[in-house]
Design brief:
The longest helix is centred in the N-terminal third of the chain and has 29 residues. The chain is of the alpha/beta class. It has 3 domains: 84 residues, no CATH class; 382 residues, Glycogen Phosphorylase B (Rossmann fold, 3-Layer(aba) Sandwich), CATH 3.40.50; 323 residues, Rossmann fold. The protein contains 34 helices and 22 strands. It is 48% helix and 15% strand. α23 packs across α30. A hairpin with a 5-residue loop joins β6 and β7. The strands form 5 sheets. The chain has a 9-stranded mixed β-sheet, sandwiched between helices. The chain has a 6-stranded parallel β-sheet with strand order 19-18-17-20-21-22, with helices on both faces. A 3-stranded antiparallel β-sheet has the order 12-14-13. Bound molecules: ligand GL4. Ligand GL4 binds next to α7.
Length: 830
């Protein structure tokens, strides 16, 4: 029996000023204390990294105070909690964000200044955790920020990859991948919870046994076991509540296999440890592309099992019984990466806790919600049955059982045809057979959502058509959103200052308040301030570009920004075709009223994705040609900024004039970069794809440059006999750029270099670049016209920002809470 410590001690006088006080002097004292006693340095010997770490610990203490206060409240009031399961997170650097959330940026900078330290320099020391590929991982982090801000009791689970997304270097215009080193100087933001760990089993076989009382049980006899240990990063909402990011790291259960050691085979003894730790070594660097690798399946199962075992422990700790698990937790599956959770929860309930199947299934379905993030066929996860059997033999049996019961229900309760059955089954029998993870997630959840209005409709119309027919009420939409704290308050302090000075600071937690800016859109004084800020942000990015690439960009050029993963469906090459068109026009002397433009690209390509890597080479080759040519380089610049990350993104978005959102309609589930750029005052040129549709609805046709086929027209064209070559024949401009592509001018050392792009566009064109080219050019002509009137452009820029209220991740989280989780925020509680 332990006596509980009085929680009020946390706010006692000594602790308060020493560890959690927010005044300049408190912060200074804590910083020095951390520097001496935590880092073990005297100021003379301290490096800039030591200073950064001492400050990080200083801030972390204060974040922890909020976190433990929230946890206490959840526990005291026995609140319902969201468990967010995601294989990816991209939190971005923590320090500046936590300072903002605590509201102590100014006094901390002052405290550091008194010590002769430039806080900005410390902020730059931080290596961000690149634990995701792109939009999906960043969305998870925005949601965590919003849950903590609004006060939705939450815990986010994931994988502590030792190596996150690779570092991208550009050499001779080509992408090269280097290992990420985010942990090389340690990670002051996390706390290892060595006592919170779970055993995870793999492989082997199962034994079905009936005991003397006639009770039936299944034993899984694995052939390997390892342990997952929790690493916690506290997350603080903006002037709000605490949450936690709990990441699992794989470790060997026993550090040494002593029998091998005793025989003198030391290396064999260590081998098991190494193999176990491999599971969380590295993030798979593919966005929207399945690999089918055994290690990937193990990663998914590993983190899901750790997380579910943890939820069960937390639930039982509250003195509850498992029958009520779904009352305590809403578990959200971020895409199918954690979908194995459906089978794992069934295994835990049925095998480990001996709850009968029907009751377990009821609990399972009521716990889970599933968010689909892609319609791309190649990204819909499937696991081959032989592989699955090898890794998770017991789960295969459970999935067969779920499938069997589901098929029976379809047949006998719903009278489904054999064709429907084979379309809907969890098992695809073609070839060696495979498990359709999206079907498992859909059947095992009580709600399924897409991430934009269009995407949710297409999901019901195509990928999950039969399921939507069967259970129309199961399907809903939650349009993505972004954190206004990170993507404007932190990244664009000047614009944030102007907005707050004009309409007050309420907009940071209620983004709809931005609409108050509409009144100012035509005010010349306000417009001038707005333009001046954009100019400053552009000059700053221009300095950064010079530093990173050696290329000078005049900040008075229009900054045309295309930053996101490199993928054919996102059509960076459509943008390039236009750049070549402009180049050829200048070369012909048709450049009298041409607007000087800087085209800025950034984004990583999956290391094994040939076409995406070739597109990077194409961008850099076009850049090499243009940036050095004095006949064109005062009118055009083409920049590829290497190693796109959250940190880089924060620098780029505030400097953009034009945002390229030009995916083929029907392919981009939502997009979130579109929202980040618009919130920073860029105008969008885009297709009717993903959340662009809703953005245009909000912003208005007049303030948005629309072009291209819509999703229905794309579908229709694909079903007809689309001939991309016809566009080549009929459009002179297109013909010129296509011919130029293979003329050798872009790659004298290898004239055939871009032939694969040329041929694909001309003969196949799966992403309808040829079909949309003309419309793109027409829309761009409007861009140039509008840019010609700077006051008018600025007005539109202000209107764009004023109408972005809907796209706050706070709104998305409110939608999840009311439609799916049925959880009240702290704010709405008495
Ligand atoms: C993605 C979508 O491609 C992207 O449109 C969406 O915004 C994001 C978050 O919902 O999810 N799906 C996958 S897979 N990666 C993504 O970025």
């Amino acid at each position: 029996e332990r006596k509980a410590i009085n929680f009020d001690l946390l706010t006692s006088k000594t602790i308060k000023s020493k560890r959690i006080g927010l005044s300049k002097n408190d912060i200074k004292d804590s910083f020095l204390e951390n520097l001496f006693f935590h880092i073990g340095r005297v100021p003379k010997g301290a490096t800039i990294m030591d200073y950064y770490q001492a400050l990080a610990y200083t801030v972390r203490d204060r974040v922890f105070k909020e976190f433990v206060t929230t946890v206490k409240r959840i526990s005291d009031e026995d609140l319902r909690v969201v468990a967010y399961l995601s294989a990816e997170y991209l939190p971005g650097p923590h320090l500046a964000n936590n300072l903002l959330s605590l509201g102590i940026t100014e006094q901390t900078a002052a405290a550091m200044a008194e010590l002769g330290i430039d806080m900005e320099e410390l902020i730059l020391q931080e290596e961000e955790p690149g634990l995701g590929n792109g939009g999906l991982g960043r969305l998870a982090s925005c949601y965590l920020d919003s849950m903590a801000t609004i006060g939705i009791p939450s815990i986010a689970y994931g994988i502590r990859y030792e190596f996150g997304i690779f570092e991208q270097h550009i050499k001779n215009g080509l992408q090269e991948e280097y290992t990420d080193k985010w942990l090389q100087y340690g990670n002051p933001w996390e706390v290892v919870r060595s006592e919170i760990g779970y055993n995870i089993m793999f492989g082997g076989s199962t034994k079905h046994v009936t005991d003397s009382n006639g009770n039936f049980t299944v034993n899984w006899i694995p052939d390997s076991k390892l342990r997952g240990t929790a690493y916690d990063t506290p997350i603080l909402g903006y002037k709000g509540y605490g949450s936690i990011l709990r990441l699992w790291r794989a470790e060997a259960i026993d550090t040494f296999d002593f029998s091998a050691y005793n025989k003198g085979d030391y290396y064999k003894a260590v081998q098991e440890k190494i193999l176990s730790e491999n599971i969380t070594k590295v993030l798979y660097p593919n966005d929207e592309q399945e690999t089918g690798k055994e290690l990937r399946l193990k990663q998914q199962y590993f983190f899901v099992s750790c997380s579910l075992q943890d939820l069960i422990r937390l639930h039982l700790l509250q003195g509850r019984i498992l029958d009520t698990l779904h009352e305590k937790f809403a578990i959200q599956l971020n895409d199918t990466h954690p979908a194995i959770a459906v089978a794992e929860l069934m295994r835990l309930l049925v095998d480990d806790y001996q709850i009968d199947w029907d009751k377990s299934w009821n609990i399972t379905q009521r716990c889970f919600g599933y968010t689909n993030h892609t319609l791309l066929p190649e990204a819909l996860e499937k696991w081959s049955i032989p592989l699955f059997r090898r890794v998770l033999p017991r789960h295969l049996e459970i999935i067969y059982e779920i499938n069997h019961r589901f098929v029976q229900e379809l047949k006998y309760q719903h009278g489904c045809s054999d064709e429907q059955l084979s379309r809907m089954a969890l098992i695809d029998h073609s070839g060696e057979g495979s498990i359709r993870m999206a079907h498992l997630a859909t059947v095992g959840s009580h709600k399924v959502n897409g991430v934009s209005a269009l995407h949710s409709e297409l999901l019901k119309k195509h990928v999950l058509y039969d399921f939507a027919q069967l259970w129309p009420d199961k399907f809903c939409n939650v349009t993505n959103g972004i954190s206004p704290r990170r993507f404007i308050a932190l990244s664009n302090p000047l614009l944030t200052g102007l907005i707050t000075e004009t309409i007050g600071s309420g907009w940071l937690t209620d983004l709809k308040e931005l609409s108050k800016l509409e009144n100012m859109a035509e005010d010349p004084t306000f417009q001038n301030k707005w333009m001046a800020i954009k100019q400053t942000n552009k000059a700053s990015l221009s300095d950064h570009i010079k530093l990173e690439t050696g290329i000078s960009v005049d900040p008075s050029m229009m900054f045309d920004v295309h930053v996101k993963r490199i993928h054919e469906y996102k059509r960076q090459h459509l943008n390039v075709l236009n750049i070549l068109h402009l180049y050829l026009q200048i070369k012909k002397g048709n450049n009298k009223d041409m607007i000087p433009m800087a085209f800025i690209f950034a984004g990583k390509a999956a290391p094994g994705y040939f076409m995406a890597k070739l597109i990077i080479k194409l961008i850099t080759a076009v850049g090499d040609l243009i940036n050095q040519d004095t006949e064109v380089n005062d009118k055009l610049k083409v920049i590829f900024l290497p190693d796109f990350s959250v940190k880089k993104a924060q620098h780029i978005y505030p400097a953009a004039d034009l945002s390229e959102q030009i995916s083929m309609a029907g392919k981009e589930a939502s997009g979130t970069g579109n929202m980040k750029l618009s919130l920073n005052g860029a105008l969008t040129i885009g297709t009717l794809d993903g959340a662009n549709v809703e953005m245009m609805e909000e912003i208005g046709m007049d303030n948005f440059f629309l072009f291209g086929l819509n999703a229905e027209e794309v579908q229709h064209k694909k079903q007809g006999n689309y001939k991309p070559g016809d566009h080549y024949v009929h459009n002179l401009h297109l013909r010129e750029v296509m011919d130029f592509l293979i003329s050798g001018a872009l790659s004298p050392e290898n004239p055939k270099l871009f032939q694969p792009i040329y041929e694909q566009l001309l003969y196949d064109d799966p992403y309808m670049i040829m079909a949309d080219f003309e419309s793109y050019l027409i829309s761009r002509a409007k861009v140039y016209e509008e840019w010609g009137n700077q006051s008018n452009w600025t007005k539109k820029s202000i209107i764009n920002v004023a109408r972005m209220g809907k796209f706050s991740s706070d709104r998305s989280i409110q939608d999840y809470s009311s439609l799916i989780w049925k959880i009240d925020s702290f704010q709405n509680r008495p």
